[in-house]
Each structure stands twice: as structure tokens, then as C-alpha cells.
Amino acid sequence: MRDVKWVFVHGFLLLCLGTGFAPATSLSWTNVAVDISSGTSIGVRHDIAMDSTRLIYVVYPYESGGSTYIKFAYSNGENPSSFDTSLPVVDSFTGSVASSVDIHLALDASDYPHLVYYDPVEYAVKHAWYNDDQGWVAEVVEDGDSTNPVGEWCDIAMSGDKLYIAYTKKTDSGTKRQLRYASITNITGWNTKTAADTTYSTYTVDSSTSADVGSHCSIAIKSGDTYPRFAYYDAVNGNLIYAYRSGFLWSKENVLASAVGQTDDDDVGKYAHIAISASGVPYTSYFNASDQRVYFTSRNSGNPTDPWTAPTDVTESGRQATGPNDLYLFGPSGGTVNVGVVFVDEPSGGGNDGLKYWYQNSGLYEATASPLSSPPTSIGWCALATGPYNSLGDQYSTDSVNRANVVYFDATSGSLKYTQDDSGVTAVDIMDFRASAKGKRDVELSWQTGPESGDLLGFNIYKWQKDPDKSQKVNPSLIPAQGEEMGARYTYTEVRVKKRARWNYLLEVVYSRGVTTTLGPRRVQ
Length: 525
What we know:
By secondary structure, this protein is mainly beta. The protein folds into two domains: 2-24 and 426-523, Immunoglobulins (Immunoglobulin-like), CATH 2.60.40.10; 29-421, Neuraminidase. Helices cover 0% and strands 53% of the residues. The protein is built from no helices and 38 strands. A five-stranded mixed β-sheet has the order 2-1-36-32-31, with no helix packed on it. The chain starts with a strand and ends with a strand.
């Protein structure tokens, strides 16, 4: 057993005795067929969400008998051995048009699903929800026609009782494309409604003279915000665009033009996805068609004047991405946001496709997992579950161990498949946490661990006097775990603490995948 001592002096964290750092843990995966028998092109487009009880919901189109249908399936995320596909179809269209049905899914605060999708027969964007007595109800949000279709590249987000729908609209006899969004309030309780109480309010975000903006768009909103934010593709200039509301106007940024250490000379922005952290920081993943790789980037903070960080390439060496990807944020710990990206790749120069999941844990290490031991020859779109929107805009997964839940189109068999990271996290026993007076003004925090697993990353310490909601983080950076098989004794000293007898101290235990537990509080003795 190793003794590890840390001292916090004048803003510096000093290690007195210690060893290395806990390594990343490999992931294991459960693979399940969502639907392999309804028809053809099953799930060529799709989306996935997870509710507060860990039910997994999947929406997708399929073709059968010369028509196209939208279907809804669900499974228990704790034990996803199969999916129930017996619910009535959401909508249907004449013709084999599944590949044109862009469709997305979000859950309201009561865990009821809301769908947005493009109707390629009526050339309109639609919103559907589930009525407990009558089944699915679908309404047109905005109409289009064969010359100027409305609703391609749609997406959906929720905040409180308000729903937001992003989509594109063709204009000028189909020669131009603009980005729009619609919103509607009072979403709560729609499981009893057969029609919307009010009309959808529609707005234009970007009608740039570049003529073709808004494709590959993604929408997100932070809890408490009035306006959503967007990431999308400028097809004329080959740029990734981020749009947000600034005063009375929409501000549009070329993301890479303002990113640290980047020059905007590539074709970037297809398959864009956006997520907003609880502190308002935007994250986006995207495909670079010039080097055939998937990247993600974020702002340095929630301040719109701050630059974007240098993009992180999530594609492995010797591989190239095919384009489809999805992004989510999970398990923030001590202010650190964890990022997961799922994407499709292939060997450089071409070959059989692979499905990859890249993840970043507590900002401390990065790893790439291959969910499929025997992937199909060809994989189409893929999506990650973000969890319900009852935290409304944060988009964090609600899984207690932050497992990735992925759905993808098996283009070889024409069917929809699901895979879940089921490796879990091995907890470590934490014992004898104490806060002791030391000398005249110092506080010594100490604790003991049992045998340490590779999932244990380290520790944070928080303190407060009267109100836990006003707690302060004591250590400037994570106190790393030592990975000791026999456990370790940790000591952390905060020096020159004013009125130390009034302080309460809490120990946060940080595991991989963003999982945390706490011990305490302890009053200084």
C-alpha cells in the first residue's frame, strides 16, 4: 500500500510521493438487431434516444410493397436483448423513398417521444407525437412543393415545454437553400392531444446569398436559453457554420476560420452535429471531405467572442472516415465535459466499413473502441442516444455509467442494428475520509482506498461553510489515482485556511466515462 501526499500552496498542487496514472479501460459491447424483417432499406435514416428509465427508443423508415413507412421501436436499455416493433406505424408515403426521409427524435419532460421528419411526397416538414388513446398524430409544420421543398435536413431539440425544429427550405425555383426553424410551446401533456393548441412559429436563420446553406444541419439549446443554436454546412464555400442569436440578429461564424491554429481551406461541415454543455459551451463534430476524417471542436468557453479550439481528429491512423457521425456529451465531473463521437470508417484507400466510438474521459485520456467484431461490408448512417431532454438542453446521457448506445444502418443486409457499450465501471471502496486541523491554519484531508481498478481516475475536494450549492473546488486539478492493487492512503493539505473550523469538506471520486461518487461532508476536527 502506497502513501500519497499532496500540498496546495499558492495556487500550485505539489506531489510529495506517488506513482503513475490509472490507464483507460477497454470496452465490451452488446449487439442487437432492431429490425431485420419489416421490408427493405430498414433504417437507412434513423435516430435514437434514451428516456429517464433507460428505455431505448428508435425511429426509422422502411420500404414494403411500393410504399414507405415510418416505424418506432423500443427496448430496455438495461438488458437490450431485443426491440419491440409492434407499435402502429407513425406515417406512410407512396413510393420507395426511405432514403429521402430525414428523421429525428427527442423526448419531452414526461419521456414522451416527439418526431420531426421530411415527407418527400408532400415536400413538407412534419412533427409527430404519440397520443395514448389514438396512437400517432402527425402535423405539417411548414408546407413546400416539388419545386421548393421544405423540411430536408431537419432536426429537433426541446427546452422546458418548448419544441424547436430545424430544417431547410428551397427557394427561387429550387436554386437556393436557406436554414429555418420552427417552434411551438406547451409541449407538456401532448400525449392526450390530437392537434397542436397553437400554430408553429417559423423563422429564417440563414438566407445567405451563397445560395446553398443549411444542409447537414443540427440544432441544440441550453437550458434556460430562449434561442437555439445551429451547426450546418455552407455547400457553396465548403464551410462549417455555427449560428447563434446575438441581440436581434443571427450571428453566423465560419468555425474553422476562428479556430486556434487552423486555416479554412478544406471542404468541411458535412454531417455536422452540435451539443451544448451546461455552461453554454458549444461542441460540434463534422466530416472533412478533403482529408476524409471526422473531427470535433468546441469554444474555449460559453463566451461568443472566444475562439474555437483546435479541432481534434478522432479518426485512427491508417483509416479514413466515410462521413456519417454523431456527437454527445456525457457525465460532466468538476466542470469537465466528456465527449463521445460515433462514426463510420474504412481502411485508407477503401475497403470494408467499420463502426468506431471515440471517447474522451474527464479530459484526461482519449480512446477509440470498435463496437462490432465482425462489421458488415457497408455501413450507412449512425446515431448516439443523448438521453431525455428533462435536463433540457444539456444533452447529457442519463445512463448512470455513461454507456454509449448506438444505432446504425447495415447497408449490406438493408437492416437496422443497435449496439451498446456494456462494460460498466468497477467501483473502488473509499474509507476513512477525514478533515483535520493541522498547525495554526492548515487543513489536512485524508482518505484510504481499497484495491484500485483501472476505472478509478482520481479525486476532487469541495468545501463550503453553510450552503452546499455555493461549494468551492479546493484542488486546481484532478488528484490522480495511483492504481495500487492493495489500495493507497491519500493526504491533501490546504494551507492558510481562514476560519477553518467553519468549513465542510466533500470528497468526489472520479471514474472513467464521467462517473462520479461522493463521500462526506466532513467538518474540520
